[in-house]
């Protein structure tokens, strides 16, 4: 537990152990007193009920002691937390994008990576962005966790102290594949990092299809997979030209997935739902996705056909 993998481990663990210790003390203490009182003040031994009209002394004691305890918790919590918001000026900057359902780490030289590779003993600042829904970047070993919220610029920083691989998780429920939204933090030596960072063989950014950009921008893949996985809605893979049974006012009808059907599905999703899928789960994208963008999506779906 006291692995010391980052500069924040000590502060967080101290606060945690203090609160844990106080909690265990009171759990045992209160339970013990309850059991003792059960016997001591039982009806058999106290035929005549007595009352107590209060005691100033008691009031002061049970106000003062908890006050001291919570102030102690506050103090250690604050001492552990405050430095997390003060980023050193020499921190290395990495832009982190959390989206359904993956992490992307982008370095200042433009290199992007699915894993966070960082040099040993060097402070690193992560700027957190989300294009779709709330996520939360959580690296348990480093004791850092911050929400990644669309439209809000959040950040976190730390200094890694040991070489090794550490888990990165998403700690905010963000949809079906939330639990698969993982990555690795790889702490390497400065030399190894320099080589890795410079190895900037620009992975032929096969210019992303304009239709895929629209799909990603609207987070369509939250419900429609691109690889055939069955999610809330039909997978986009092999969808183009496929014959499907749809329900129109509870009557079955066979259709071929063509341009007209795709557009209908975008603008009036409940009109003709493919059998086996549910109504009312998708909103209309009228006014959100333009006719022109819908055409791009159609073109992209054509490329997903085997
Ligand atoms: Cu992203 Cu949970």
Strand content: 15-25%
Largest sheet: 5 strands, mixed
- Count of the separate structural domains: 3
Give the names of the bound compounds: dinuclear copper ion
Tell me the total number of β-strands.
13
> What percent of the residues sit in helical stretches (DSSP H or I)?
25-40%
Radius of gyration: 28 Å
Reported by name, the CATH topology of the largest domain is Immunoglobulin-like
Q: What class do helices, strands and sheet pairing give?
A: alpha+beta
CATH architecture of the largest domain: Sandwich
Any idea what the CATH superfamily of the largest domain is called?
A: Cupredoxins -  blue copper proteins
Question: Can you tell me the overall shape?
Answer: flat
Identify the strand order in the major beta sheet.
Answer: 3-2-1-5-8
Helix and strand succession? HHEEEEEEEEEEHHEEHEH
What value does the average pLDDT take?
90
User: Can you tell me the CATH class of the largest domain?
Assistant: Mainly Beta
Cα(first) to Cα(last) distance is: 50 Å
Structure annotation, total helices: 6
Q: What tags apply to this protein structure?
A:
306 residues; alpha+beta; Immunoglobulin-like; Cytochrome Bc1 Complex, Chain D, domain 2; 3 domains; 5-stranded mixed beta sheet; 6 helices; flat; binds dinuclear copper ion
């Amino acid at each position: 537990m006291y692995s010391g993998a980052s500069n924040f481990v000590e502060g967080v663990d101290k606060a945690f152990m203090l609160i844990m210790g106080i909690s265990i003390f009171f759990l045992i203490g209160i339970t013990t007193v309850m059991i003792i009182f059960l016997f001591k003040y039982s009806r058999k031994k106290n035929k005549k009920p007595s009352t107590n009209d209060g005691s100033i002394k008691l009031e002061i004691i049970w106000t003062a002691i908890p006050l001291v305890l919570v102030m102690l918790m506050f103090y250690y919590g604050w001492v552990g937390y405050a430095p997390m918001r003060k980023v050193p000026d020499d921190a290395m900057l990495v832009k982190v994008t959390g989206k359904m359902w993956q992490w992307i780490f982008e370095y200042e030289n433009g290199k992007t990576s699915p894993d966070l590779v960082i040099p040993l003993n060097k402070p690193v600042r992560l700027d957190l962005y989300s294009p779709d829904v709330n996520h939360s970047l959580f690296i348990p070993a480093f004791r850092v966790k911050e929400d990644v919220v669309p439209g809000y610029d959040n950040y976190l920083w730390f200094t890694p102290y040991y070489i090794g691989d550490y888990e990165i998780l998403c700690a905010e429920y963000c949809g079906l594949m939330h639990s698969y939204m993982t990555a690795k933090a790889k702490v390497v030596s400065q030399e190894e990092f320099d080589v890795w960072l410079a190895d900037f063989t620009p992975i032929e950014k096969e210019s992303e299809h304009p239709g895929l950009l629209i799909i990603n921008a609207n987070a369509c893949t939250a419900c429609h997979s691109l690889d055939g996985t069955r999610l809330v809605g039909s997978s986009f893979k092999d969808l183009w030209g496929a014959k499907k049974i749809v329900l129109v006012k509870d009557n079955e009808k066979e259709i071929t997935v063509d341009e007209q059907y795709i557009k209908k599905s975008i603008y009036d999703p409940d009109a003709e739902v493919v059998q086996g899928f549910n109504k009312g789960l998708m909103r209309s994208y009228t006014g959100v996705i333009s006719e022109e963008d819908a055409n791009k999506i159609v073109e992209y779906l054509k490329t997903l056909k085997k």
